[in-house]
Amino acid sequence: MEEGDEQVFGKILYVEIDVFAALVLLIIMDHGKRRLNLTQSLFKKILVSVVCVLLADAATWALNGATFRGARTLNVIANYAYWLAGALPCYLTLLYCMSVVYGRLLKLWRWIFLVPVAAAVALLCLNVQNGWIFTVSADNIYARGPYFLLVGAMPFIHLAASVVMTVHKYLHAQFYERRLYIMLAFFMGFTILGSTLQIAVYGLVTIWISITLALLMCYVYIQNGSLSTDHLTGLNNRARFDAYSAWLWEHRRDYTGICLMVLDIDRFKSINDTYGHGEGDSALKLVAAALKAAMADRRGFLARIGGDEFAILLTNAEPGDDEMFSAHIELLLQAGNARGGRPYTVTASIGGAWLQENEESFRSFFARADREMYRRKSGHRG
What we know:
This protein is α+β, with helices and mostly antiparallel strands. It is built from 15 helices and six strands.
């Protein structure tokens, strides 16, 4: 094969790789358009941004060295589109990690980390005059500028910040949550590796291929995770609770104190019948938010196990932790009722039980906690 033919073959190969990766992400977007919840809307934005980068990258390879009329102008436009679009995926990845790790977007940090994106846009505007980032010669050949790393390396700021917050959360997370943060860390690590290779060796297309593969794996994990998450409350569902409780039962000797608490919303049927199921959903979300807030500084497991019933498993707990936890939840529900403006008051009955040395099974353990909950519920009715 002659040198010219090799260059044409290489160009076609790069374009095919970019287009193939874009098609993979478009399939993920189509498959997940009805499956990604509100929290995962950022994930969808990452998919869109990477597809735009891949298509722009494919255009730059297809146009580079082309000799038809207007080819150089199109090549310049495609390269600006590529560099501008390339500033977004890693920033959106940072926001996605922030939403997963903290459960919300921290407004101040969101604006602070937008600064590198704005700086990249400014440098690309200046590139029109000075060619610092890239140039396209008169014969339509692209070349990196002397300071291309000023823009090319900026996404590493977002990736580094994502890694730091993910690792920090991993070190402080419950063991059953750590798989999520391992996946996020792999996502960033795979992306950093691909980016480093492409920056070091011009002509490789490892950045966006590595991101595509990482997004595909992340999406598969999201889909698997959705099977164990209650979408209304964001808590673990009954299937996850059953799996976790089976694991905990096998490893119960590793913990000094295991407390199971069962919570049931008072007069929940009346809320649904009087005010509609929308208000019933609102009550469930209020209780879930209270449980999450109460668990923020404790080690344990939360799940919605059916209807208006929730389960809390505390590990390495000390005597009195169950009563303190119950009191904390009651205070949080009172605060939620005060600021909610609802025509009803959300209260709950909470019963607990401590795992005993002679416990026959987890089922008997759960039954004791459930009986205690119903005993307290009868007292509330009285």
